[in-house]
Amino acid sequence: MKIEIDPNAGFCFGVVNAINKAEENLSKDGQLYCIGDIVHNSIEVNRLNDLGLQTIEHDEFKGIKERKVLFRAHGEPPSSYRIAKKNKIEIVDATCPVVLNLQKRIKKSFRELKKVNGQILIYGKKGHAEVNGLVGQTSGKAIVIETAKDLKSVNPDLPAELFSQTTKTLDGFNLLREELQKIMKAPFKAHDTVCRKVANRVPLIKEFAQKHDVIVFVSGKKSSNGKLLFDVCKGINRNSYFISEPQDIDVSWFANAKSVGISGATSTPGWLMNEITEKIKLENKINISMSRIKKIGVLTSGGDAPGMNAAIRAVVRTAIFNKLEIVGIKQGYEGLINGDFKKMKSHDVSNILQKGGTILRSARSDEFRTVEGRQKAYQQMLDNKIDALVVIGGDGTFSGARIFTQEHDIPVVGIPGTIDNDLYGTDYTIGYDTAINTVIDAVDKIRDTASAHNRLFFIEVMGRDAGFIALRSGIATGAEAILIPEKETHAKELQAYLEKGYKEHKSSGIVIVAEGDKSGGAYTIAKEIEKEHPEYDIRVSVLGHMQRGGSPSAFDRVTASTLGVAAVDALLDDQKSIMVGMVHGDVTHVPFNKTIKNKKKVKDTYLRINEILSI
């Protein structure tokens, strides 16, 4: 089920401005008065009340002296300004500019019409704060027309000018204008003063209501704008529901819905619509799992990485938390083809958080690369009633998952597990941080012996196609040079650099080489250097698979746990063929085709840092 928040819903400029001014003054003084609710939404009013905003009525306002009082977006009549001046009240004027301009226009027209005994007509809701402020510009003499029956108050033989409350509809205003044109005998002018940002909400919300199976409209019960827009929604989509807070949600509304739209009035805060979205997601997870996803499979594929067990643990326990069955698939895609499944319980993943490797074991599967192999895997899923998969691995794992979900429409979500950190769409992959720390620990030990014997060590680290491990660990260990696949490095340049360093002050040397470096790896480049400079005492150390092992770092454990939870959440949100990643500390969803096709680039900043620090 997809959930979309209406991009046109929420606070208008006037309300945003009023709330900003209230928060600004409350942060300084801790107390502020406001005549009437600052916005027609009780939850937002309560939030501001907790910050120190006190709502008062006009009668209370008259008795306040030497205090700060906010005039909200609706505006106030001239009498309120006179009282403030008399009582030495400091006004925080948050009157909406559109309303303020309308007040000035009505005041000017009233002065002109007084000369000919004319009438000011206001299309609006009687007693509404904005309307009261508009009527105040005419010393209380304006005629408020709310419905057609109020037309009897208009004298057709006297000149008249019609204005509108800013939040009324254009249709309503145009109908009233037509009726007045029919009955008026004296000169008559109609001024369209409906706020376009508010008026345009009607056609926009009609389009939005048509797009979704269910509409949840969020508004305070006092909001006339909210009642109006909800009626529009209901007229377009009969599955429209009016709520004021998250507790009003009825989960039965979404039983057969594929898409839900969240909208609101101009007085509805964005944070409330976000909160309601999360509430709907939470309430529907169990329903979704009951109706569509009942059993999830989890597997690890490709090269193992420290932290994979933490990810498995998170997937298993999040599935159980959401009342889903969960099975572990051993030996990756090979196990999926052969039906090597194990039903997982919470205790099955106890005491594995700190372990390297993967309890499900990993294997590469040539058979899964074939149509026939994937068909066997799909049949195993059908036979065992597995509805969705979480796969933990790298780009090869995700390439297989993407093809599989295309052929058989199986929901698959990937978790990036590779020490190379070379997957597009995530800042960090599971295992990368631990692998770097393993390299750093090994290089620090090698540095000791290099210094003792004035030796030059070429240390090869993993990174067949990417130099992320080499670059970051090289900076962390103070390497004299770093060779990576992404950067052209010529042997002569390296020779000249090392010779200069040795002659000046270097007593030992460390060169970090990614295994995929274009120079041919640590042994090849070491031999070339040795031919040109036989005086060097050169050694080569290939760290190899030790980088894959070991207890995962705290960073990898937390990342794996976060992404494991996110993967199951994504499946329950009807996501498929995506990888869950981490960007700037937040979970992101990246389509498999993007993370596979796009190449993650090393940061030039790190190359420059190493160049500066290795002098």
What does this structure look like?
The chain has 615 residues and is α/β, with parallel strands linked by helices. It has 5 domains: 9-96, Rossmann fold (3-Layer(aba) Sandwich); 98-194, Cobalt-precorrin-4 Transmethylase, domain 1 (3-Layer(aba) Sandwich), CATH 3.40.1010.20; 202-289, 4-hydroxy-3-methylbut-2-enyl diphosphate reductase, catalytic domain (Cobalt-precorrin-4 Transmethylase, domain 1, 3-Layer(aba) Sandwich), CATH 3.40.1010.20; 295-419 and 558-594, 3-Layer(aba) Sandwich (Rossmann fold), CATH 3.40.50.450; 432-551, Phosphofructokinase domain (Rossmann fold, 3-Layer(aba) Sandwich), CATH 3.40.50. The protein is 44% helix and 18% strand. The protein contains 22 helices and 23 strands. The strands form 5 sheets. The protein has a 7-stranded mixed beta sheet with strand order 15-14-13-16-17-22-23, with helices on both faces. Strands 1-12-10-11 form a 4-stranded parallel beta sheet, with helices on both faces. A 4-stranded parallel beta sheet has the order 3-2-4-5, sandwiched between helices. Strand 2, helix 2 and strand 3 form a beta-alpha-beta unit. Helix 16 crosses helix 17. The chain is elongated. The two termini are 57 Å apart. Its cofactor is Mg(2+); [4Fe-4S] cluster. InterPro entries: ATP_PFK (IPR022953), LytB/IspH (IPR003451), PFKA_ATP_prok (IPR012828), Phosphofructokinase_CS (IPR015912), Phosphofructokinase_dom (IPR000023), PKF_sf (IPR035966). Mg(2+) binds at residue 395.
